Structure prediction request, 397 residues.
Amino acid sequence: MADPHSTPKRHFETELVHGGTLRSQFAETSEALFLTQGHVYESAEQCEKRFIGEDPGYIYARFSNPTVAMFEKRMALLEGAEAARATATGMAAVTAALMGLLRAGDHIVAARALFGSCRYVVEEHLPRYGIESTLIDGTDLAAWRAAIRPNTKVFFLESPANPTLEVIDIEAVAAIAKSAGAKLVVDNVFATPVWQKPLALGADCVTYSATKHIDGQGRCLGGVILASEEFINTHIHTLLRQTGPAMSPFNAWVLLKGLETLSLRVERQTRSASLLADWLADQKKVTRLIFPGRKDHPQAEIIARQMGGPSTLIALEVEGGKAAAFRFLNALRIFRISNNLGDAKSLAVHPATTTHQRFTPDVRASMGVGDGLVRLSVGLEHPDDLKADLAEALRVA
Prediction:
């Protein structure tokens, strides 16, 4: 049965710990882990009602699971969404959200500053099914308007974007999408639900890679789609049920444990990232520093309006291009080279040769991904130790 104390009036931090909790007959403190593929029914009549949706119980782990349901409910409470559906990975969430909305003959407009896999889905995967795509400068509102066609059905963006931390005016883009009869899907991974609420800004759907900050400790994969009940039931539920990108119950349980400390981790990581960004901005070998918490960020005014805090990510250009960036990365001792982010451990990556390596130099340049660009994901270590690590790496670079 549902937690009798659950109420939408509780604070964000409380819902991170208690939201959506289900308890078995054993009244466990920690959320139960239900490792089962299927469920049994009291009668054939009940089984029939489950399959046609007249009985709300569970059927099969590809459709639903009590542990996964707890994760979905908790995420919906945090995001301020009516409904959520968990997926096996963050990219499964993005792909399902877009494919659930689009059909052959439709058109999608997306910001060009995207994670490499997201751009692949928009630019190469969807067109295989007769879906047209247009990539634009997401910070240019006129470009969104100009890209609209009679068959435009979806706008898609990341904000802040991976890896350049470009920020898009979500509320303004949502208004443009609405005027065109299109749905706006926002990937909110870099901001996290701690610092940004796209649904409150007018987005129709929000996606996360739960692999990142939500787990936050490098343990498992996961994704989640959040929207209204009508949106989920119309565009997402049947697609996930029939195609099967299901989250494992074990991963859902791990992610529930991660949510309990999400605000503590993100707030601490953000404070450290802010300190390091200010210090890095004064270093001679850093030719470009991008951090959403600084006044010199190109979209600082938008950030002040739509985000409650900056990010745990920093992007910097190292003088000397790829060779210098590699020397910098190889000299790091606390920051570890990894393409993951949002972890308790500080991580660093060279996007041009990893997450964005499949693009031509010209395309990477249009996305702001230069050969000297390094993305830092700030962890929970002491900021003084991280600063010393970066200082030595810059000296070597």
About this structure: The first strand starts at residue 83 and ends at 87. The chain has a mean pLDDT of 95. The longest helix spans residues 262-280. The CA atoms of residues 38 and 60 lie 4 Å apart.
